[in-house]
Amino acid sequence: MSSFSIRLGTTRNQQRDRDWNKKHITEIHSSFVFEELLSSHVSRQIERGALQFNSHAVVGIELLEASETKTYTQHTFDDTHHQVLIHEFMSETFDYDSYMMTLDEQEKFRHFATVVRDVLVPLLEVHTFSEKEAISEIIEQGLRQIEMNDYKLVILLNKTPKSNKKRNRIAVFKLIVSVTGTTFWIEVYEKGMRLFQAKVIEEIASPYAFSLYFGTIRWESDEVFTIHSKVRNWNARVNVLNGTIDVYKQIRD
Q1: Inter-residue contact 43 to 97 (CB < 8 Å)
Q2: Which of 70, 176, 182, 211 is most buried, taking the most CB atoms under 10 A from its CB?
Q3: Strand order in the sheet with 216-219
Q4: 8 and 29 Cβ atoms separated by less than 8 Å
């Protein structure tokens, strides 16, 4: 399936001191979950042909809250012919910084949905062949899907699954992304039945940052496997039989 991205940002430049950044590290990327879920829905509609852009080169849209309204531009990136529509907008009812600091999922989603209806839908009307009613219904379906997913996104890490020596058990690593951050879970299955589930880490907002934790996984036995990461000096020992996870840092010589 082709991937189409939708991002919500700002062009406003405000000074933030180090204490502010440290205090709000878990909220900085908290818009990611809504953007990803809506992007996935729109990607499926494009794949089905229900939404067709005037240019096949368009692969994403960036909606940027600005101090003054400017006309949209097309941006070419990665030395390819792929393009992202960049559209700056003004709104009396939407403040991007306040939006990013909102931790209530329903309240945050309400503001996100307002921007999507007021800004994204009219933009799609200009740059697609679809009728206004069809575009609105597609976007409303995407917004309903976010609510049905309980405002959370589940991502299976690309290093899964991993089977033990007998190949009767599979370890699955997944991320659950929410408004307040991302949690890393480990699950172990045998013949489709879940034997083990545990939350390992809940401290990083961006799911991309979790790739830094992973290096290699090795089953020490049919009951125990270990994870070793040289990048972050992060390690974990998982005992399926006892249902325990020991997270530790490697002691360097």
Answers
A1: no
A2: 182
A3: 216-219, 224-229, 234-239, 244-249
A4: no
Q: How far is CA 114 from CA 48, 72, 94, 117, 119, in A?
A: 26, 19, 9, 5, 8
pTM: 0.81
**Domain match, 141 and 160 both:** no
Element (H, E) at 206: none
Place of tokens 């940002």: 9
Instruction: Count Cβ atoms below 10 Å from residue 13 Cβ, excluding itself.
Output: 6
**In the numeric block, which tokens belong to residue 91?**
């709104």
Q: Are residues 38 and 133 in the same domain?
A: yes
Give the phi and the psi of residue 105 in degrees, each rounded to 5. -60, -45
Q: What is the domain range of residue 121? A: 5-148
Same domain, 111 and 186: no
Please say which residue of 148, 175, 193 terminates a domain.
Answer: 148
pLDDT along the chain (253 residues), means of 10: 84 55 51 93 94 92 85 72 89 88 92 96 94 95 97 80 78 86 86 86 64 74 83 79 79 54
| 131 vs 133: CA distance, rounded Å | 6
What number of other Cβ atoms are within 10 A of residue 12's Cβ? 12
Count of alpha carbons within 13 angstroms of residue 131, beta-carbon side: 3
Domain count, the chain: 2
C-alpha–C-alpha distance, residues 222 and 170, integer Å: 10
| Tokens encoding 113 | 């949905």
